[in-house]
Design brief:
mainly alpha; 8 helices
């Protein structure tokens, strides 16, 4: 029996939800049921690694953040091995027939890094600092990726090309 088991068990639903959103249609197939299985396998692999390596976990940070870091790392390796480390260019351009499908297609067009930041903040409700901790990057880079992801989503969903016309109130401050 592991001392971290309650924390790990509590994180499993969020890991599964995040993995499903992350994979959506970027998994090995365009079949949602198959991608759901791939996402569940990814979450399962993450939990097993945490249970096997409990002694080597960094206990100075919340286990939840460590689990998300591992899951993202596993998925990045899988994508790289499969040659899917770029946004999906094969998504049909007439995705506006359904808002949900349009959102999934727009998410597919984001880079992996931007999609991860967007999902951690919007789906998992993590703070900028938590996302920076999960991804081992600076808070400023988290904000930069989030702004870029939101602008790209806005352009994809509205069909407009200029992000500046969509969000004139956003400015980069050095």
């Amino acid at each position: 029996s592991t001392t971290l088991l309650p924390e790990i068990e509590q994180a499993v639903p969020a890991l599964r939800r995040f993995a499903r959103a992350l994979i959506a249609r970027t998994g090995a197939t365009q079949n949602p049921a198959t991608n759901q299985v791939l996402a569940d396998d990814l979450a399962h692999e993450t939990v097993l690694l945490a249970l096997r390596s409990e002694r080597s976990l960094d206990l100075s940070r919340p286990i939840r953040l460590s689990l998300f870091s591992s899951l993202i790392g596993f998925h990045a390796v899988h994508l790289k091995q499969a040659g899917f480390n770029q946004p999906n260019a094969h998504v049909a351009s007439d995705f506006n027939h359904n808002v949900e499908q349009g959102l999934i297609a727009a998410l597919d067009r984001l880079t992996f890094e931007d999609r991860v930041v967007l999902l951690l903040i919007n789906l998992e409700q993590m703070s900028y600092d938590e996302v920076a901790d999960v991804l081992h990057i600076t808070r400023a880079l988290v904000i930069q990726r989030l702004v870029r992801a939101r602008n790209q989503l806005a352009r994809s969903m509205t069909g407009q090309q200029a992000a500046s016309s969509l969000h004139p109130h956003l400015r980069l401050v050095k």
